[in-house]
Amino acid sequence: MAMVLTKGDDFPLHQTPEPVAYAGTDRNFYDRYFFNGYAPDGSGFFAVALGIYPHLNVADAHFSTIRDGVQYNVHASRELNMERFDLQVGPIRIEVLEPLHKLRVTVDGEGLKADLTFAGRAFPIEEPRFIHRIGPRTFMDYTRLTQNGHYEGWIEVDGVREACAPGTAGTRDRSWGVRPVGASDQQPHGSGVVHGFFWQWTPINFADRSLFFHVNADAKGNKWNTRAVIAPDGAGADQHFDTDGDMTSPLAPGTRWPDGGELTVEGPDGPEVLRLEPLGRFQMRGIGYTSPKWGHGLYHGPLAVEREDFGLGQCNPGQMDNFHVQLPCRVISDKHGEGIGVFEQLIIGPYQPYGLKEYLDLG
Question: Do residues 324 and 333 make contact, with C-beta atoms less than 8 angstroms apart?
């Protein structure tokens, strides 16, 4: 009998009668860490992703940072070997210093180095469970926790080290469940099934609170998962203000990227209107999302590491792998002054509210 016991089996984490190495039966099961961060003026943007795919026997990780209009990225992938407690992939490592509060990311490879410690501002929020089907097929079924926080540390690019600016803020999330990962499924969904995916997410940092909004919608614009949450600094799990929001945001001409937006949230003291003004752009393919080569869960052998640099001004907005973006934004509230945050958007396929009829239509 093959050995399947791992480090996780010595902790009370089991969800089934089997060892932790076995994560149910869906080959698309995944477990992922994500981080982003930026200075108070939106500069120095960086992001990290580390994912584990138990049924594919793959772990992968990505680190990316922007300097002077260039996005520098390092990608790494290895065989998981069923050990889910090993949070290092090539040059990228994550350490959980205080669960649900403090984590550390270190990077050392391909000319990119970093040592970053994240500390949460409040207890993480648990977003509504994401369940989405395309026809009869389950496309997504996962849970995500999200937390804003501050960073300390430094990033080095080809020998040039820069410390995190005072007040460097950002967001981290943890998600687990089922998403399309690894090699794509070529089986058609069936006659007449039109897939459209619309996603917006705006984690925002103000001086004494965090504000979160997200929305998923189908090709016709029907929302299937949305919520807004306000988390005062130091708030516990039962002190979040749970509400709803509505985003109005045009597309930047010739792209599927947002050109700013206006978010209205029902706050504890009535409606609050927030204006989001982009300060830059980060391409999510730098940390694996929609990357044709380094997409999440793809198999690259026992260990593979690769550096990738690209100029943001040279990214073709008509290429599908460039559709997914995060924009650092100045956020101006009509009630609570100015903050800083991120506007993430991904539109795949048709989206009726924007007049996108074909998969590669642009605004």
Answer: no
Flag whether 180 is in a domain.
Answer: no
List C-alpha distances in Å: 235 to 35, 186, 205.
21, 45, 14
The string of DSSP codes covering 126-186 is EPPPEEEEETTEEEEEEEEEEEEEEEEEEEEETTEEEEPPTT-EEEEEEEEEE---SSPP-
> Which residue in the block uniquely carries the two structure tokens 């040059």?
91
Report whether 159 contacts 112 (CB < 8 A): no
- Assigned domain for 336 exists: yes
DSSP 120: E
Total number of domains constituting the chain: 1
Contact (Cβ atoms closer than 8 angstroms) between residue 20 and residue 9: yes
User: In this predicted model, what pLDDT tens digit does every residue of 123-138 receive, in sequence order?
Assistant: 999 999 999 988 788 8
Residues present in the chain in total: 363
Q: How far apart are CA 127 and CA 134, in angstroms?
A: 21
pLDDT of amino acid 236: 96
Tokens 């108070």, located at residue = 40
H/E stretch holding 226 reads strand 223-232
Asked if residue 178 lies in contact with residue 197, where contact means CB atoms within 8 angstroms, the answer is no
Instruction: Answer yes or no: are the C-beta atoms of 346 and 199 closer than 8 Å.
Output: yes
Maximum CA pair distance of the chain? 64
Please report, as a single letter, which amino acid is at residue 27.
R
| Residue 353 neighbours by CB distance under 10 Å | 11
Q: Which domain holds residue 82?
A: 27-173+194-354
- pLDDT (tens digit, 9 = 90+) per residue, 219-233? 999 999 999 999 999
Q: What is the DSSP letter of 207?
A: S
Tell which residue, 209, 104, 215, has the closest CA to residue 148.
209
| Gap between the Cα atoms of 63 and 91, Å rounded | 9
